[in-house]
């Protein structure tokens, strides 16, 4: 008697586990091809892939383990080999938080976004993290930036929690930083400069968030309150002081930094040869900026000290515009295309010409990104005080600075919407009757 055939098994078909798969694939329990930034399954189903948003996919302990394993595979010498769990040999990482995950996030992801040019990536990925072993305040500064970066990629509710973690790490770092800065030596000069860079990035992000909240409050007021004006001005002035602080450290230990691991950060680049278009753009914008001095020179009498501070800040701004334009490289084909589209540029209105210049330069590549911050370095204490008070003329100058800031840093997660907020601050403080004073910033910087 023939044996009765057994029914075919309907068990689950097994496949190689996708250990590092994205969150949607893990939820569906299907194999993830782990393609970045969007895996094949998510692309096919048109769903949000966690590789794109860098969203967490499990609990903190598991995330830390996976992050360390990923980092060990991807980064040569990045994460110390002896790291086996949160906080191991890293006093700035707390064991009951996402700190170790974010430490690895900085090395794998954040470092690549900060590296300009790309040749600086190993400095942010390896050199600066290595300083945190002997100088924990550098580690806390690194953590604060990692949390801000992840916050920029997260939902609003999650972002608030991440920003709070960032502030925690900055506050933890300040005592050690304050103690070290009392006695700058060759050994601590690079750690101090590294942390000062992190503080600038933290200030940018924090000021953007803070100014956004103040602007929302201002727009809800029927009559703008003096406190709101001062809050807006204080936020703007804080950025200036933060940038001046980092250069204060730099001037005190330039000879050590220039020969240490951070020397590539301070290396400046020779400007490319100016072409005819760039020369014309500099001339047009400089003429527009020069007219701003008439506001305080022809208007109500301003104290001579204020007038001098405003004129000096404007002169610095004109220099910054010209420098950034000279350092911005426009592909030849783009220049030729623009000329072919409108060969008679003299027929354009002033508004159209300014808008076209901004569009062309925004699409170019700025070789020396820190050049956009030279305006801040040269600001006098008197001008910063005027900005802090919400002085209308200082706000006009700030709004015009926002043009070149937007041009150089649009899309950077660490500036977020700071340029737009600067223009919006000026618009709120100036009011409708003086809105024409910032027509150019309002036109080219979307608020």
Automatic annotation (TrEMBL):
Start and end of every Zn(2)-C6 fungal-type domain? 21-51
Is-annotated flag, keyword Transcription?
yes
SMART domains from the UniProt entry: GAL4
Tell me which CDD domains the record gives: GAL4
- Transmembrane ranges? none
Q: Which UniProt keyword terms apply here?
A: DNA-binding, Nucleus, Transcription, Transcription regulation
Q: Name one Pfam family in it.
A: Zn_clus
Q: Does the keyword Plastid apply?
A: no
SUPFAM superfamilies for this protein: Zn2/Cys6 DNA-binding domain
Which named protein is this? Zn(2)-C6 fungal-type domain-containing protein
Species annotation: Aspergillus pseudoustus
């Amino acid at each position: 008697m023939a044996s009765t055939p057994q029914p075919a098994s309907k068990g689950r078909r097994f496949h190689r586990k996708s250990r590092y798969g994205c969150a949607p694939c893990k939820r569906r329990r299907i194999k993830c091809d782990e393609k970045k930034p969007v895996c094949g399954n998510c692309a096919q189903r048109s769903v949000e892939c966690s590789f794109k948003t860098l969203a967490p996919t499990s609990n903190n302990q598991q995330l830390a383990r996976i992050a360390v394993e990923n980092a060990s595979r991807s980064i040569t010498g990045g994460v110390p080999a002896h790291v086996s769990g949160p906080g191991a040999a890293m006093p700035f990482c707390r064991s009951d938080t996402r700190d170790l995950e974010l430490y690895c996030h900085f090395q794998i992801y954040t470092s690549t976004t900060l590296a300009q040019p790309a040749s600086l990536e190993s400095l942010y990925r390896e050199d600066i993290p290595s300083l945190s072993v002997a100088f924990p305040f550098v580690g806390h500064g690194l953590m604060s930036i990692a949390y801000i970066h992840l916050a920029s990629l997260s939902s609003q509710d999650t972002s608030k929690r991440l920003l709070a973690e960032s502030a925690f790490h900055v506050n933890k770092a300040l005592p050690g930083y304050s103690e070290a800065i009392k006695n700058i030596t060759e050994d601590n000069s690079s750690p101090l400069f590294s942390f000062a860079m992190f503080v600038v990035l933290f200030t940018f992000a924090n000021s953007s968030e803070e100014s956004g909240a103040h602007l929302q409050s201002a727009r809800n007021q029927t009559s703008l309150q003096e406190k709101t004006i001062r809050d807006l001005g204080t936020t703007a002035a804080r950025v200036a002081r933060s940038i001046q602080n980092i250069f204060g450290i730099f001037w005190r230990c330039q000879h050590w930094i220039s020969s240490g691991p951070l020397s590539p950060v301070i290396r400046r680049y020779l400007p490319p040869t100016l072409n005819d278009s760039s020369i014309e753009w500099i001339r047009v914008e400089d003429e527009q900026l020069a007219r701003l001095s008439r506001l305080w020179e022809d208007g109500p009498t301003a104290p001579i000290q204020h007038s001098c501070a405003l004129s000096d800040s404007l002169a610095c701004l004109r220099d910054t515009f010209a420098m950034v334009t000279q350092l911005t490289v426009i592909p030849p084909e783009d220049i030729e295309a623009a000329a072919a589209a409108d060969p008679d540029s003299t027929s354009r209105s002033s508004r159209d010409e300014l808008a076209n210049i901004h569009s062309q330069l925004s699409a170019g590549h700025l070789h020396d990104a820190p050049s956009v911050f030279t305006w801040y370095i040269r600001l006098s204490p008197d001008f910063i005080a005027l900005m802090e008070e919400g002085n209308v003329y200082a706000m006009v100058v700030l709004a015009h600075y926002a043009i070149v800031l937007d041009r150089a840093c649009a899309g950077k997660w660490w500036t977020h919407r700071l340029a737009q907020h600067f223009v919006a601050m000026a618009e709120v403080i100036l009011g409708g009757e003086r809105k024409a004073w910032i027509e150019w910033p309002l036109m080219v910087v979307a608020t």
